[in-house]
Amino acid sequence: MPTGREIIWTGAISDALSKFTREQEAHVRSRLSGGARVIDIAREFGVHRTTVSKIKMGTYRTGPSC
User: Fold this and answer.
1) Among 60, 6, 11, 1, residue whose Cα is nearest residue 52
2) Residue 66 · residue 27 · CB < 8 Å
3) Sequence ranges of the domains in the chain
4) Hey, which of 15, 24, 35, 63 has its CA 20 to 30 A from 9?
């Protein structure tokens, strides 16, 4: 029997945690295709490099209201 609470991430929570707007995400993709390094883009936007890597890999989820 599990103990504690089960956390279920819903779309609304994921959307609220989005670091980038759709426009910013498009800008990051453009910079990546131009040869910019993930770490440099992450520093520019003040986010962790894995956030930019998710955009690069296509697994980053931008909220619908962004």
Assistant:
1) 60
2) no
3) 15-57
4) 24
Better-predicted residue by pLDDT, 64 or 62? 62
Please give, one letter per residue, the 3-state secondary structure of the chain: CCCCCCCCCCHHHHHHCCCCCHHHHHHHHHHHHCCCCHHHHHHHHCCCHHHHHHHHHCCCCCCCCC
CA distance 12 to 16: 6
Instruction: Read off the pLDDT of residues 2-55 as tens digits, 9 standing for 90 and up.
Output: 667 776 655 555 555 567 888 999 999 999 999 999 999 999 988 889 999 999
Task: Report how far residue 3's alpha carbon sits from residue 39's, in angstroms, rounded to the nearest whole number.
Answer: 39
- Copy the structure tokens of residue 63: 């909220």
Query: Can you give the pLDDT at residue 66?
Result: 47
